[in-house]
Each structure stands twice: as C-alpha cells, then as structure tokens.
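Q: Could you fold this chain for me?
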Amino acid sequence: MSQLSSNYLFCSSAITMQCLSAGGPAVEPARTFVALVNDSINYDDDAVCLQSGIYKLAESNPTSTSTAIGTQIQPNPARDQIEVTLTGKLEGMCRIELLDALGQMVIAEKMNCKDQTKTINISTLKQGMYSVKVYMNTTTLLVQKLSIIR
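A: Sure. Below is the predicted structure, expressed as structure tokens.
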C-alpha cells in the first residue's frame, strides 16, 4: 500500500468512528471506503453517540421483541447478476445501492422489504471491488464487499 493511500485510510478510519448524527455526511462514505480494505469492522453507533452526548429515544413499545435482521448477497464473487436476500421481520421499502471503490453510487434499486429477495443485473459494471449497502427507510442494514470477476 502506498504512503498516500495509507494516509487516506488512516484519515477515513478516524471519520468512521464518529457518531452518525454528529459526523455528518462524511461518515457513511468513509465507512464504505474502509470496508473495501477491512469489512470485519463493526460500528457501535449507540455507544459512540452516547459518549458524544447524543441520546437515542427509547422505543414506544419496550416489550416488543426484535428479530435478527440480516442480508445475504449471492454469488460473491459475481459475474452478471446478484441476488440480495433479506432476513427478519421487515416492513416498508428497502433501497439497495452499489458503490464503486471511490464511493460513487453506480446502481440503486428499490424493493418492498417484505419480498425479501431482489435480483440485480450487474453486467454493465466493470470488473473490480464494490460495496453493497442495504437501507430500510433511513437505517443502514448492511455494508458488504462485492467482487465482480469476469
């Protein structure tokens, strides 16, 4: 890794550790950039925001049980299309974005979250590394690497 890209990674890592509410629009692209290098980092936004003095309101129904929400992208590495599968109890609209190595959105798809499966044509994309982000309403459910190999 060159000195310049090492410096970018160091600066981006510092940005990724900020509270989403306080860090502004730079936090998500920085997390996408760092995920291209190391996708095993988990961000505890609740703890970070609490340390910054930003409090999250409690749910209106504290007795509700939450089911695990997750996603799966297959195949990875991919060639011409991918299938995004959502798990858990989801409602509303979901948005799936594919971002290139520079954090630029190259594909954006919408789906009803209840459908839980979406096939996306990626045949127009160049070979390389991409990030896949899945949003439900305004909440990020997943940021994952995707390799396109032809």
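A (continued): The two ends are 25 Å apart (CA to CA).
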